[in-house]
Design brief:
single chain; five-stranded mixed β-barrel; 8 helices; 9 strands; binds ligand LNRAV4D5; binds adenine; Nucleoside_phosphorylase_d; purine salvage
Length: about 300
């Protein structure tokens, strides 16, 4: 591996297991203190020659269920390559009539309905305490930038895919889908979309000071519509391929500009998470364990690689 930093990470979800419309360079499989990522990471090059890193969240053969995705290894592995911004894709259910299957959405809020069985913090099982800011779970500036670029890319594609913005996504545990009662409850709570994987991914990206945004691709109406069948995996598969094709088109269209945005003169305002953990790590109340510090230095070298402070 050369020292060249790869600044953009793309995480593909159900149906999006590769970005084969970009030029393949190689695969890498970093071992992190939290183990290996879901699958070897593909390094691909953009027309300008800049490289991006692509990771299939459930493994290339979709063999990892949502509760078992190694979120910490995935985020840590991407950060170890130099990644600063993660563009994640996810197949989601729609909780709103207007968000028809085949639509794309960029959420700005999350409701957590995972069940505490997924390791959700790099600080878990260490004696270092940190409380990351998470009021805005996605990176505001990245999201705003993305809304405009994705809208233009969808227009360019010309298949009539609609884009919805400022939506709230519910992240449930799974692997079973929701009951009709739950689906209706999520609507009453203000949920617009539902998936099983935006958490803890978004939380871990925040702890690692990475910018993170999600492109949610609707595959079904979940189970809230009284006259319709409740969602099944079969239903989801019907839209998965078309959504994946459009996702690849969107990625290829916007990644070059994203590379420019995060290397250009306004990069520091764009990458607003850098430095954010400084005020989240609690001043030491107990002696920090050197092994914990070494582990945490893998994702936050600025705070943990030096002598204990
Ligand atoms: C195949 S339906 C349920 C499955 O699809 C979504 O995966 P991803 O977010 O990785 O695209 C959802 O979150 C569930 O994991
Ligand atoms: N209805 C649904 N519920 C949870 N995750 C999903 N992914 C795609 N559709 C979904």
């Amino acid at each position: 591996m050369s020292d060249e930093k790869i600044l953009i990470g793309v995480i593909g979800g159900s149906g999006l297991y590769h970005l084969d419309n970009l030029t393949f360079v190689k695969t890498v499989n970093p071992e992190t203190p939290w183990g290996h990522p879901s699958s070897p990471i593909t390094i691909a090059s953009l027309p300008s020659g800049a490289k991006i890193a692509f990771l299939a969240r459930h493994g290339v053969g979709h063999s990892i269920n949502p509760s078992a995705v190694p979120g910490r290894a995935n985020i840590a592995a991407l950060k170890s390559l130099g990644v600063r911004a993660i563009l994640a894709f996810s197949a989601v259910g729609s909780l709103r009539e207007e968000i028809a299957p085949g639509s794309f959405a960029i959420p700005t809020q999350i409701i957590d309905r995972t069940k505490g069985i997924r390791p959700a913090s790099f600080f878990q099982d260490t004696n270092v305490v940190a409380h990351a800011m998470f009021g805005d779970p996605f990176s505001n500036k990245f999201v705003k930038w993305l809304e405009d670029k994705v809208a233009k890319a969808l227009e360019k594609e010309g298949r009539g895919v609609k884009l919805f913005t400022e939506k709230c996504i519910v992240c449930m545990e799974g692997p079973q889908f929701s009951t009709r009662a739950e689906s209706k409850m999520y609507r009453a709570w203000g949920g617009d979309l539902i998936n099983m994987s935006v958490l803890p991914e978004a939380k871990l990206a925040r702890e690692a000071e990475l910018s993170y945004a999600l492109i949610a691709t609707a595959t079904d109406y979940d189970s809230w519509r009284p006259q319709s069948e409740a969602v099944t995996a079969h239903e989801v598969f019907k839209t998965l391929k078309a959504n994946a094709d459009t996702s690849r088109f969107v990625a290829a269209t916007i990644l070059e500009e994203l590379q420019e945005a995060i290397t250009g003169e306004n990069a520091s305002t764009f990458l607003e998470e850098v430095g954010s953990m400084k005020f989240s790590i609690m001043p030491r109340s107990e002696k920090q364990n050197p092994e914990d510090r070494a582990k945490l230095a893998y994702i936050l070298p600025e705070y943990f690689s030096g002598e204990e402070q």
